[in-house]
Fold this protein.
Amino acid sequence: MLVWGCAMDSNTRDSKLSFSESALLIDVRTIEEFESGHIEGAKHIPYQEIGVRIGELTDDTSREIVLYCRSGRRSGVAQKTLAGMGFENAVNAGGYVDLRARLVDY
């Protein structure tokens, strides 16, 4: 199950998240940030390359795509890019530290 809570208020920071097994988790930070730590199973595509590189991972515009960065700003830009390309289930999951704390079984 993918939780679509994108707002990062105090209630969402305390809630736990779980994704469907078919969800595509993408870290849009720099390679240095990714290599210093990332969510297990995440793929890496820098946010400014998401539009040209998403096809490396999927061409299914209905697939669940979960994006994160450091704070949620870059993943928000990536989500808007994907939405503009027709990816209807791309979600901005916010920042890495908050996301890691909210994931079930991480």
Summary: The domain at 10-102 is CATH 3.40.250.10 (Oxidized Rhodanese; domain 1). The longest helix spans residues 73-84.
